[in-house]
Design a protein that fits this description.
The protein is mainly alpha-helical and 246 residues long. The protein contains eleven helices and no strands.
Length: 246
């Protein structure tokens, strides 16, 4: 039963990444805690494998479609390395309950960003690198501490600050998520032994398959409707997480 739930959760995470380009780990972490009974550190560390792999699969599937800028994605990730180091260092300082409450707040912020905020306008201005540095650093902190890729922040940052077209920003965010997740996983070597390898492998494969299958049809669906549905799910999970940890 646990493995079946793992397959289902993995498919959901991969679907979210493939269709929206963001939000996978926001569901992966609470799912791993609730279904597999992992600790917060084990869940967030495992999440870097699952989401990073699924995001990379999405990048490879979009290769040649003109919707991925690998150079920009890697640059964004590299700029946020310092933030990832900070976030990882905070793992040993912040109690697990506080980490989960922070996670719930991030869920609510992501829900608002996807559902209620107006789409950023692609204004032909000069790239704002100072803003990119701030955004990338903050995303790095989130990845290091919470094990999430931060795609819901990366996409608008690429559009607003680097003048990247929306469809390209979604694909490019997957590059940054892959790189961020790989770095965060490497920095969490002290927690590798907590990872249930078989279960996470099944979860990861399921997420990759879903991401690969759904990435090509992302541009054909109503993105706004998908984001609103996903936002509602995030709010429900966030409320549950808050009440379960107070």
């Amino acid at each position: 039963m646990t493995l079946l739930l793992g397959l289902l959760l993995g498919a959901i995470v991969g679907s979210v990444l493939g269709l929206i380009g963001a939000g996978g780990a926001i569901l992966a972490v609470p799912g791993l805690i609730a279904v597999l009974g992992l600790s917060v550190t084990a869940a967030t560390t495992s999440s870097t494998i699952i989401v990073g792999s699924a995001a990379l699969a999405g990048v490879l599937r979009r290769k040649g479609s003109g919707t991925v800028d690998v150079r920009v994605g890697l640059t964004f990730s590299a700029v946020g390395v310092f933030g990832t180091l900070i976030g990882t260092a905070l793992l040993n300082l912040i109690p697990e309950k506080i980490t989960l409450l922070l996670f719930a707040l991030i869920m609510l912020a992501a829900a608002y960003a996807m559902c209620c905020r107006k789409p950023p306008e692609e204004i032909p201005e000069k790239p704002k690198w100072y803003a990119v540095i701030l955004a990338a650093t903050f995303v790095g902190v989130l990845t290091g501490l919470l094990g999430i890729g931060g795609g819901f922040l990366i996409v608008p940052a690429l559009i607003l600050f680097l003048r990247i077209p929306t469809k390209v920003a979604v694909g490019t965010s997957l590059v940054a998520i892959s790189a961020n997740s790989l770095l965060a996983f490497g920095l969490r070597f002290n927690f590798w032994e907590q990872i249930p390898i078989a279960e996470i492998a099944i979860f990861t494969v399921s997420a990759i398959v879903a991401s690969v299958l759904l990435s090509p049809i992302a541009g054909k669906l109503n993105a706004k409707l998908l984001q609103r549905i996903f936002s509602a799910v995030l709010v429900i999970v966030a409320i549950y997480t808050i009440f379960a940890n107070i």
